Amino acid sequence: MDPALDVEPRDERRLPAAGALKRWMFRALAMAALGLAILGVALPGLPTTLFLLLAAWAAARSSPELAARIDNHPRFGPPLRAWRERDVVPLRAKIFALGSMAASLAILGWSGAPAIALAGVGAVMVAVAAFLLTRPSD
Fold this sequence. Notes:
Blueprint (H helix, E strand, L loop, with lengths): L16 H26 L5 H13 L3 H8 L5 H10 L4 H20 L4 H20 L4
C-alpha cells in the first residue's frame, strides 16, 4: 500500500467548514466518476478509463480510504498504477478509444452535422489520438 495513503482518519468536526465541504464535493465527484467507470465496463461508448482517472484523482483529494480501495481493486488498480508510475496506456484501451472516436465521428458525419462541428470534433479527436499513440503500451 502507498504510504501516502496510510494516514489517520481526520476528525471532520475539527475541519473548517469550507474544508469539509470541499472534501465532501471531491468525494461525491469520486463516487460519481467511479460509478460511471463501472458502467463503462459494460456499456460500449462510455469512457471507462477517463472516469476511472477522474475518480482516482478526486478520491486522493477527499478520502485516503477510497483512494486506496480504487488503487487496490483487482480490475481497476493495475491500469491506474501503470499510468501513474510509467504513463502506460494498455494496447486494448488504445484500440478501443481509437475505434470509438472513429465510429463517433462517422456517426456525427452521417447525422448531417455542420462541417464546422465535424472539423472541431475531428481536430479534438486527432489530438487525443496523437496523445494516446505517443504513450507506451504494456
